[in-house]
Design a protein that fits this description.
The protein is α+β, with helices and mostly antiparallel strands. The chain is built from 4 helices and 4 strands. The chain has helices spanning 44-56, 58-68, 105-117, 134-146; strands spanning 30-38, 70-79, 85-94, 123-125. Strand 2 (70-79) and strand 3 form a beta hairpin. Helix 1 (44-56) packs antiparallel against helix 3.
């Protein structure tokens, strides 16, 4: 008799998923996103290399934030009850932002690691609430819409 498969399912949204509607607490023109994807089995060490690479090159990563209109990004790892490793990524971005600029070497490395270490696509969690001090909100809104401080 075959063992039951208790692996946590991974169901990425379609590539054309427009995103969830933003709650009223997210300023107009901004998107708050929490995404998750499974790390490919056997690629956990490569995931660690990827995160080490990003952590060692913060000044270079700043170059791409303007085009992405990224106000904030953070990445987390979770090892689930089935033993699978997942990446969680939270971001606050301007709606007019673009993808990683692969002409920037660190962004090209970032994309290469992503394609190799994680399953394709993302599951998207629905945003429900955001809170930030008002003096930071105005700076975030300006960055998200113009890409300038």
């Amino acid at each position: 008799m075959a063992e039951p498969d208790f692996r946590i399912p991974f169901t990425p949204v379609p590539r054309d998923f427009p995103g969830y509607p933003m709650p009223a607490s997210v300023p107009p023109g901004m998107r708050l996103e929490l995404s998750r994807s499974r790390i490919r089995s056997g690629k956990e060490a490569e995931f660690d290399e990827w995160m080490d690479m990003l952590n060692s090159r913060p000044d270079e990563l700043q170059q791409g934030l303007h085009a992405e209109r990224a106000v904030f990004e953070a990445t987390f790892r979770s090892i689930e009850s089935d033993g699978s490793t997942w990446i969680y990524h939270v971001s606050l971005v301007g709606e007019g932002g673009g993808p990683n600029d692969e002409s920037i070497p660190v962004d090209a490395d970032h994309v290469r690691y992503s394609r190799s270490a994680k399953e394709p696509g993302w599951e998207e969690l629905e945003p429900r609430f955001m809170l930030a001090p008002s003096h930071l909100l105005s700076a975030m809104e300006r960055w998200a819409t113009t890409g300038t401080p």
